Please model this.
Amino acid sequence: MPSEETSPSLARWTVDGGRVVLEISGEWRRDGVVPEIHGEPPDEAPARYVTDRLCRFDSTLPAFILSHLRSVAKPPDGAEPPKPPLEGLPPDLRGLMELALAVPEESDARQKSAGPSELTKLGKLSIHVWAGVLSIAEFTGQSMLALGRFATGRARFRARDFWMVVQECGVQALPIVSLISFLIGLILAFVGNAQLVSFGAGLYVADLVGIAMVREMGVVMTAIIMSGRTGAAFAAHLGSMKANEEIDALRTFGFDPFDFLVLPRLLALVLMMPLLTLYANFVGILGGMLVGAAVGIPPILYWNETVASIDLTTASLGVFKSVFFGAVIAMSGCLQGMHAGNSSAAVGEATTRAVVASITAIIILDSGFAAIFTVLDI
Amino acid sequence: MPVSPPPPPAKAKITVRDLTMAYGSFVVMRDLNFEVAEKDIFVIMGGSGCGKSTLLRHLIGLREPARGSVLYEGEDFTAAGPEGRGKFIRRFGVMYQSGALWSSLTLAENIALPLEENSHLAPMAIRDLVSYKLSLVGLAGYEDYYPAQISGGMNKRAGIARAMALDPDILFLDEPGAGLDPLSSRRLDDLIVRLRDSLGSTVVIVTHELASIFAIANHSIFLDTATRTQGATGNPSELRDHSENPAVRLFLRRGGETDPSSQSKS
Model:
């Protein structure tokens, strides 16, 4: 039995008649002193252990022995190494060692951790990017097919789900959309006013705010808000559903997860984005009107000037774009969610990717539209 | 049996007194009274949904009792409050039902994190400890895997390895055997007994795997869904053969009331 006196932990490697002996003594505790090791650890498993003066121990001792046994060179032909002798260990320690050695180390697993070369990384990255492009194309195609099924009345999803999403990305988005658009209108008016007043053209601030809001700012700001708000929510929701195998469960009941999950979200956002955009345009103009009133333009005059400056074509440009932006937000959120990995960290990554991808796509699309509208002279 | 708890004897590791567990006004179990002695392997058993995991969560302080208290070695854990509980909790090792490994860390990092935060070991020593813990649960060499890359059963075993990271005084395991194949489950039973023997840990297990209950438990509590209180406490094999509560006998014989010999191998 171990003696009760506490003594520092010590391990001594000795050779006795050509056989390695490991002598262990003292108290091995995690919060105790660092064990002293005497002698060079040999490249073979100890044939015998001497533990007469071993006191209490915690996991540090078996961890120490195991790490040596694992470090001993394996037979070069890949054969199963012989079970190391555990003679001389106290029964409980011996039991733990047997348990730890019962399943051989997964050597393939360890090799995986070796870092790949730079070239391999570049190749993997290229394959990854290309796979991403393909998956976007595939997802877009699937969305179109699902829309086709919807148009012909063959898509199955619950109307309740659809209205829930409509509520979530419509009415519930109004407060934040109001705040942001109002402030954007305000800012545009301030900046415009400062410049225009110096030419004596202060009234034209109404034209500036009106045109900027209905053509660009209203729709772009709404789209960005909705990416952060709704696109992220889609990705997180679908990602967690995937991690919990809920999407597989839908599939095994014969539901097309695409129709069931993506379609209601896509339709709801495509429907609500134009409405939100119209609303944002209006609120932005109100913001400008407030600044106008503050610098001496009567609201009636401001309103008339705004109405005169915006024709129906101009007013409909932003709304037209918002349909595409809505589709982009819904699709990137759903795509990232459906392709998320099976862990909580992966859900976070999917959400980040969804927001970044949709904002990037919105700005790129908007530049495209600007170019097209310029060519068409609208 | 009249409920009049005697003063806890010195060796009782865990004492539960008049514990009533409730979610709002819904009472899950009432008036639980039992003791877990040092080095016991104590099993909490009962039908699905009867509150086994809830009881475990009360024992480790994740939920507050509606009434009653939990004592560790005679010291009141329930009354200790959030700050005073630290010293109790540091002696616990907990494995959650689904493993609950941190998904953004590798298996090695999962086990190393509590070691790094609670000790002053050198990185090499921590690495050795991590490989040892993983070897114990049969996952040697899987250090650099992420929880999402390995199977559910492996996640569970890794969860046990993490629970053991700090050589806990009391190990709480929530359904450790569920989802494991019979051999791994057996290995796990073996591991639990050996850990108890070598480290002197007390083990509290939530399970309904009869084979492992009879193989390793020396003390148990049966939670009775019908009466919403404890059905019986005692050694599972004795309860199976001699319990006065028919629900307990039925449970421990898998519904076969007459033939105790079919289960009595262990």
